[in-house]
Amino acid sequence: MATLEAISEQNVSAFRAVRLRALLDSPSAFGSTYAREAEFDDAKWLERAANMSGQRGAGFLALDGNEPCGIIGALLNGDEPHIAQVVSMWVAPTYRRGGIASALIGAIGSWSQAHGVHTLRLMVTSCNQGAIEFYKRCGFAMTGNTEPYPHDPALIEYEMARSVQIAELQPNTSPPGD
Predict the structure, then answer these.
(1) Disulfide: which of 70, 78, 111, 126 matches 62 by Cβ 3.0-4.6 Å?
(2) Chain CA centroid to CA 143, Å
(3) Rg (CA), the chain
(4) What is the pLDDT of residues 111-149, one digit of tens each?
(5) Which secondary structure element, helix H or strand E, spans residue 38, and what is its range?
(6) Euclidean distance between CA atoms 137 and 40, whole angstroms
(7) φ and ψ at 87, to 5 degrees?
(8) Distance from first CA to last CA of the chain, Å, rounded?
(9) How many other CB atoms are there within 10 angstroms of residue 35's CB atom?
(10) Distance CA 60, CA 46 (A)
(11) What is the DSSP letter of 14?
(12) Under CATH, what is the fold of the domain 3-163?
C-alpha cells in the first residue's frame, strides 16, 4: 500500500515526476498540458511546491516506496477562504482501485477541516465518467456549473462540490482518469 506525503521543497522531484506523468496519462483531466509544464524550470517547480505547502494550499503525493503513484492538491479560494478547490487529482493506472484516491481525498479533507474550509469544489471533464462516479461516492454532487474544457471544445467541465463535514468515504475504486 502506498503512503502519503505532503508536497514540499524536499520532495519536489517526486512532485514534478508524478505531475508530468499524470499530464501524459490523462491529458483531458487537467487544465494544463504536458508540453507547458515540461518546460518549467527548477525554480518554477519549487514555487509550485511552496504553493502546495503553505497557508493557502496543500498537496499530497502517494508513494509506493520511492515511486510516486498519485497526487492531489487543494487551494483556498482567495475571495471565499472557507472554500477550497481540489486540483491535480490523479492515481497511476496500475494503482487504481486500491484505495489511494480515497486516501488522497481524505488527506485533503483533513487539511480542509484544520483550515476552516466548509466546502470542497472540483472540476471534472465530461468524458471522465469513472472520476465522476468516484467523486459522487466521496460525497461530491454536481453543482450545475459548467465550463468549456480549454483544450477540447467537444468537452465540458462539470463543477462538483461537497461539505467538508461529510464523513470520508472509503470506496474501493479510484477514478480512471484522475
Answers:
(1) 70
(2) 18
(3) 15
(4) 999 999 999 999 999 999 999 999 999 999 999 999 999
(5) helix 34-38
(6) 35
(7) -135, 160
(8) 18
(9) 9
(10) 15
(11) H
(12) Aminopeptidase (3.40.630)
